[in-house]
Structure formats: structure tokens, C-alpha cells
Write a structure and sequence with these properties.
It is built from 8 helices and 8 strands, in the order E-H-H-H-E-E-H-E-H-H-H-E-E-E-E-H. The protein is α+β, with helices and mostly antiparallel strands and about 210 residues long.
Length: about 210
């Protein structure tokens, strides 16, 4: 599901109290295909927040969560109830420009297309961000090679912006009594970014050499 912040506010009036990311995660968990347990399956929610960037919330499939657990070096896998992911992207370096008209459509089109092709959501978000930046800069629709060139330029100048990829593993063990009270929830949280990895490597992973 894709919404802007105003649409999300009308759907979830409590956003100003709970906060944007918490509301997004709750909605993603509730998109569970009618199953009784919200931890079994979930959906993906993309929210555009104007100049403050874009956020994606998703409930990870167990097999994907296990892969991320291993990549995060969290030690031996000892099980968890469910895992959530929220990705934030934007460009703090863009403070003055003529127009962003069309950039949102460019971002959404790239994101939906790459997600449909099986790209990881974080990789699709990064590509869509580069695509929107390229469109704002040139007013032209980008090719993958254009995104690689723009990413290389960001690497040289240190100007990508921001991309935060946060994983939340909700562990077994809630309800355990301690001297301070019962444990309400045990969570392992990892906050990372992908910017150490050249975008060209990501393209090669999915497509081979880009044209």
C-alpha cells in the first residue's frame, strides 16, 4: 500500500501521538491476509512525507528475517516471534531546487517495478531515491546506468543524503518475571545503512552488467 502522510493521518488519526514509524509498523502487521496471528504474515506500507523523504514498513517473512539475522552477526539463531523492518530515505543535501514535480511518480514507478522483479525492499528504495534525484536534476527518466553514475558521484562527494535500514527482531521471553517486574517485550534492534556498498554491485547482483 502506498500513501502520503495526509492520507495516512486520515486512516490513522493517532499518528500524532504514536509517531509515524510506529503507526506504519502497526498497519503493516495488520495487513496479514485475514490470519488470526499478526506475526504470521504482513504487508508493506510506503509513505511519502514530502521533503522529509519516504519511509517503508514491512513485516519480514521468516526466511528473510533469518538471512538478516545472520548478516547482522547477532550470534547463533535462537528463534524469534516475528521481525519488522522500516527503511527511511531522503536527501538532506537538497535544500533549494526549482521543482520536484514528477519526482514522486518517478520514485514510485522505480520502486514498484524493482519490487515486482524481486529486488530487496532496501535495494529498491535506494534505486528509487537515486532515480528521483536524477529526475529532479535532469528532468529525464533514468536508466540503471544513470543511477550507477549518480551513486558514484555521491560517493566521491559524500552527498547521497540519508538511508536508514532498521530491523526489529521480537524475541521469545515476554512474561518472564524479574525483580523489576514482568518482561513486556524483548527486542533486538539493528540500525544500518547500505551506503558502504556501491550501487553498481547491487545492479550486478540482480541484472549482471548494466547497460
Amino acid at each position: 500500500m502506498i500513501l502520503n502522510r495526509e492520507e495516512l493521518t486520515s486512516l490513522e488519526p493517532g499518528i500524532e501521538i504514536k509517531g509515524l514509524e510506529r503507526c506504519m509498523l502497526e498497519i503493516a502487521r495488520s495487513m496479514n491476509h485475514g490470519r488470526a496471528s499478526f506475526s504470521v504474515a504482513g504487508g508493506k506500507l510506503l509513505v511519502s512525507d514530502g521533503r522529509r523523504g519516504v519511509k517503508l514498513a514491512e513485516l519480514l517473512a521468516r526466511e528473510d528475517a533469518e538471512v538478516f539475522w545472520e548478516k547482522c552477526n547477532l550470534g547463533p539463531f535462537n528463534g524469534f516471534k516475528y521481525a519488522e523492518r522500516i527503511i527511511s530515505t531522503g536527501d538532506d543535501n537538497v535544500i533549494k531546487f526549482a521543482s520536484t514535480l514528477g519526482a514522486g511518480d518517478t520514485f514510485t514507478g522505480i520502486f514498484i517495478g524493482l519490487a515486482a522483479l524481486g529486488w530487496d525492499m532496501g535495494h529498491a528504495m535506494r534505486a528509487a531515491t537515486l532515480g528521483a534525484q536524477y529526475f529532479i536534476k535532469t528532468r529525464k527518466l533514468p536508466r540503471l546506468s544513470d543511477l550507477v553514475s549518480l551513486d558514484n558521484e555521491h560517493t566521491r562527494c559524500g552527498t547521497f543524503g540519508r538511508l536508514k535500514d532498521s530491523l526489529f527482531f521480537h524475541m521469545d521471553g515476554d512474561g518472564v518475571l524479574t525483580r523489576y517486574g514482568a518482561i513486556a517485550e524483548k527486542t533486538n534492534a539493528m540500525h544500518t545503512n547500505q551506503l558502504h556498498r556501491p550501487f553498481s554491485d547491487i545492479v550486478k547482483h540482480y541484472c549482471g552488467e548494466c547497460k
